[in-house]
Amino acid sequence: MPMSTPMPEQSGGNPSAVAVSALGLRKSYGDKVVLDGIDLRIPAGSVFALLGPNGAGKTTTVQILSTLITADGGQARVGGHDLTADPQAVRAAIGVTGQFSAVDALVTGEENMLLMADLHHLPRTEGRRIAAELLERFDLTAAAKKPASAYSGGMKRRLDLAMTLVGNPRIIFLDEPTTGLDPRSRHNMWQIIRGLVSGGVTVFLTTQYLEEADQLADRIAVLNDGKIAAEGTADELKRLVPGGHVRLRFSDPTAYRAAAVALGEVTRDDDALALQIPSDGSQRELRSVLDRLDSAGVDADELTVHTPDLDDVFFALTSGTDLPRRNKENVR
């Protein structure tokens, strides 16, 4: 994979540093194009979520950026290191937890941790100390001496992530880390991920759960047909899909009628004294609504903003729906 144009490097003391950057990544298997020139820029200390239908190339992206496979073209840097020129440095900076656990079910949780410490060539005393600290951090101390085969799905996921942290990586790739977990275990994993990020770790997350991306990610990209269909914050992506609106409710019928006249094209609910106005939920549009109400000398008793959720965004972006150009321009 040729690397030519210099790309920004990560610097631990720089809050605006880039942990992962890629330009024009491409990958094909035979005649099937999996990645068709994708660009990424992920700030250090943030959560980036990559969404997409099955087979979209999410796992392939993780495998390329974690040096497990090579791209056919493009440029990438991870942790400030050129992916092709210095893969060993990349591997030293990252941790990877896949959708299938790397836990050895035949040995205990503690033995799994110590094996990982040996793989990182840690001195025996230090390895035991780090293993004990991580087992406690992930609430696995009581089960440390039990074979991992006796662990629940959530416990195995926590052990898997604890093993990933033995080498103290600053960038972690989580490839569908909560697949198959029950809701409680999934929420517990979310708390762990938030804790890692608060400590400055960068998390690259792929997930099938749109709520997970909504809850955790600072930025989200939707991968479809080998390309990034859209990227932005959860709120920015939600504004891509038509159907958003502002709802105003009034207790005074006179104020309600005056607002309807001032706002023009609205959907009226005379029984509820409520008005609905199409809106993308942006600050600019909300200010416009409030300015028109102020000009009419009217105050609403209740204002709520309704935007489509990530499910709507996902289906629209991966089904070929032609989204409004005006909204598309608001999101990279």
Describe the model:
The structure is a single chain. The chain has about 325 residues and is α/β, with parallel strands linked by helices. The protein has 2 domains: about 20-105 and about 150-240, P-loop containing nucleotide triphosphate hydrolases (Rossmann fold); about 245-305, Alpha-Beta Plaits (2-Layer Sandwich). The protein has 12 helices and 14 strands. The strands form 3 sheets. Strands 6-7-8-3-9-10 form a 6-stranded mixed β-sheet, with helices on both faces. Strands 2-1-4-5 form a 4-stranded antiparallel β-sheet, with helices on one face. It has a 4-stranded antiparallel β-sheet with strand order 12-13-11-14, with helices on one face.
In terms of topology, how is this protein built?
Layout: E1 18-29, E2 32-43, E3 47-51, H1 58-65, E4 73-78, E5 81-82, H2 87-93, E6 94-97, H3 109-119, H4 124-137, H5 153-164, E7 171-175, H6 183-198, E8 202-206, H7 210-216, E9 219-224, E10 227-232, H8 234-238, E11 245-249, H9 253-263, E12 267-269, E13 274-278, H10 283-295, E14 302-306, H11 310-318, H12 325-328
Parallel strand pairs: 3-8, 3-9, 6-7, 7-8
Antiparallel strand pairs: 1-2, 1-4, 4-5, 9-10, 11-13, 11-14, 12-13
Helix pairs in contact: 3-4, 3-5, 5-6
